[in-house]
Amino acid sequence: MRRVKMLQHWREQQQRQFDTIQQEYGQINSQHQAHQQRLELLESLSGEYCIEGGQQASALMLKGIGRFRYQLDNLTNLQRHELAMSAVELRTTNERLVQQHCQVRMGEKIIEKRQNQIALKQERQQQKILDELSANKFYRQRLT
C-alpha cells in the first residue's frame, strides 16, 4: 500500500506538470494566433498602398509611398519570422504536452496494475483462510 501512495504522489506531480504545460500551450497558442492576425493585417495594408495605373501622383507622394511600402515590407518580413518562431515554439510545447500526458497515463496504469495486484493478493489470502476454515469445519464434523 505504501508503494501505491508513493506512485499516487508521483502521478499527482506529473499531472501538475501536465496542467502547467497545458496552460503554457494555451498562452503560446494565443500568441501564435495574434502573430497570424498581425501578419494578415500587414499584408492587407501593403495592398492598400499601391498606385494604380491612370492615377496621378506627385513625385514626393510616390517617394513617400515607396518608403512606407519599404518599411511595411520590412515589418511584414519581421512578422513572418515571428510567426515562424511562434510556430516552432508551439510545436515544441505540443510535443512536451504529449510526452507529459504519456507520463500521466503511465502513472495511472502503474497504479491500477499495483492496486489489482494488491486486490488479487488479498483475495487469495481470504480464499486461503476460507479454505482452511472449511477444512477445519469438515474435520471437526467428521470427528464428532
Automatic annotation (TrEMBL):
User: Where does it primarily localize?
Assistant: membrane
Q: State the compartments where it is located.
A: Cell membrane
Q: Which GO terms describe its biological process?
A: bacterial-type flagellum organization; bacterial-type flagellum-dependent cell motility; chemotaxis; protein transport
User: Which Pfam families does the UniProt record give?
Assistant: FliJ (PF02050)
**Bilayer topology term:** Peripheral membrane protein
- For this UniProt record, give its keywords in alphabetical order, as a comma-separated list: Bacterial flagellum biogenesis, Bacterial flagellum protein export, Cell membrane, Cell projection, Chemotaxis, Cilium, Flagellum, Membrane, Protein transport, Transport
The record's annotation in Gene3D superfamilies points to: 1.10.287.1700
Question: Does Oxidoreductase appear among the keywords?
Answer: no
Q: Name one GO cellular component term.
A: plasma membrane
Question: Looking at the keywords, is Protein transport present?
Answer: yes
Q: Which family does it belong to?
A: Belongs to the FliJ family.
Q: What is this protein called?
A: Flagellar FliJ protein
